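Residues and backbone
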Amino acid sequence: MSYTIAEIAKALGASALGAADLSVSALAEPADAGPGDLALATKPEYADALPQGRARAALIWEGADWQALGLEAAIVAPRPRYAMSGLTRMMDPGEGWGDGIHPSAIIHDTAQLGPDVHIGPLTVIGAGARIGAGTRIGPQASIGAGAQIGEGGLIREGVRIAARVRIGARVIINPGAAIGGDGFSFVTPEKSGVEAVRETLGDQGGAAAQSYVRIHSLGSVRLGDDVEIGANAAIDRGTVRDTVIGDRTKVDTLVMIAHNVVVGTDTLLCGLVGIAGSSRIGNNVVLAGQVGVGDNLFVGDNVIAGGGTKILSNVPAGRVVLGYPAMKMDAHIDMYKHMRRLGRLVADVATLKKSNQNRDRSD
């Protein structure tokens, strides 16, 4: 695929400068760009590397002097990072699976496939599954009985979608993700040590060692429209009701979402986030990498949790939190500032103590 600078600018709603008929076929960082690449010089510090490459054209920021940068053509976007969304979509060559249904795929007679569905090699489609028009399913994927996938989806290599899972339109699921595994739900015949600790906050009492018995997961998982699931993420089915992920929410690699969790719309769950069972996450929430959320908690709309935060109690809407346990970010930062001063404080106290001891001896 190749596009002229004029074609790209028009598709992005951006401005084309210089030799607008110049064609490019790939994107590259400035130092690595060749004559047929569009260099991504979206900031002055990135543009500094242009002389190390051979780019003739670049995506640049508003106000940049493209001629002074040694370019023959440029695309100017008011928000270059946002323009990257459309630009990478244009230049995406796809996964190379080919079209149609591979002869090695196993598709149950009762499965329903919409128009222009493409299924890769060694993929299995279960009884009664329904696949929407234009959806592409890669190699070695597994779609369970009665599962539903909306139109325009992209199910990557090795994805596992369990029975009765319902997935909206234009959903992307990256390699190795598992949607609809059983919840981690176990119970003991009598009160367990964990239950005792919840009540005592530190003493197991007389709880004896016990064996755990499985609680089966009868619910499923529902993913809304335009959801994206990262590689090797796992979303467990609900115990009785469904685990739910709202429209346009993005789930990163290695995220774990437990049974009965409800996640709102337009939420970002970054890498290694873990959400325990039956918690509710609001709309427009951002949980940064390695955030943990305890079970049966509520995180309100527009909350932002910094990396590594451990949420052990409800978080009201709009709050920005950090730390273990989670607290207001400004309070957490102040606390760490004070901790850094502890050594000096201890030394000052020791000096005062020594001074008082010397004064006592002189008296």
Q: What stands out?
A: The chain has six helices and 39 strands. The chain has a mean pLDDT of 95.
